[in-house]
């Protein structure tokens, strides 16, 4: 028996012809067994891949179902009707503006202020606004000749580490107090 008779045609085309020699009887049986084992292993690998794919698809479908339930999407018409009835019974309260909306409004309202606040109040407003919109101060402190920029930098530095949402709320409160007075 020749070697190329044992292996698939596609593989034998890749091998040099001088390898196509006679195989002695005990070795040819062993070669056939190895090739058969390789085929079985190949089939097993394909089967495992298919099984893994099926498992992954099933898991994905379960996750989608759990996600839909978590989002509160009604799974039937009855649940949908119950949700509608519950929603119509509960009086709706006007939505409270978000912190971001209040901050934007305050930054616009400050422009309508009658009169100019003192320098310390302006520095406080500047520092809170910068901390709320940008975060911690960065860069070098301006030189001695740049008095206004240096004052702003120092005021902003005092707010170092303050959370942006806290800075927004403090800015809103400061603007409201200025508008009230």
UniProtKB/TrEMBL annotation:
Residues 72-98 are annotated as: Disordered. Pfam families: ACBP. Keywords: Lipid-binding. Residues 99-181 form the ACB domain. This is Acyl-CoA-binding protein. InterPro entries: Acyl-CoA-binding_protein, Acyl-CoA-binding_sf, FERM/acyl-CoA-bd_prot_sf. It comes from the Bacteria. Residues 79-95 have a biased composition (Low complexity). It comes from Litoribrevibacter euphylliae.
